[in-house]
């Protein structure tokens, strides 16, 4: 396991515990080179049922490419997208399901994307939730204002 901080090719497991649901093992690791600590989670496979009925393995890259479109022209980095995809995967896995549909993935994307960039969130939500009127946008924007009041 490469160190995410310095890319050192080795790391030491300092703690290892099974999650409450028994579906994953979380390992705390430390890099012997830079001393950086990070966690890894070992899990069973997770599949996604597409709208077409096709089943394929969950892919963070697919989450990233879906969100990337909504982020065009926005100050969102590839690193931000990677973190978002990881958050989405963890949220979906926390449900304990071994198979989810694309709808559930879309739902799991909305929350972290809103934290990341509100404009990208509105774009993504407008497609995902099939906004079909200005009122839909207005109520989504109104909700953003309630949850995240702009600092004066
Ligand atoms: Zn390191």
The largest sheet has its strands arranged as: 1-2-3
Q: Provide the low-confidence segments as ranges.
A: none
Structural class, by secondary structure, is alpha+beta
Task: Determine the number of helices (DSSP H or I, runs of at least 4 residues).
Answer: 5
- Report Rg: 18 Å
The portion of residues assigned to helices is 40-55%
Quick take:
This protein is an alpha+beta fold and 152 residues long. It contains 5 helices and 6 strands.
Describe this protein's structure.
- The protein is about 45% helix and about 20% strand.
- The protein has five helices and six strands; from the N terminus they run E-E-E-E-E-H-H-E-H-H-H.
- Helix 3 packs antiparallel against helix 4.
- The mean pLDDT is about 90.
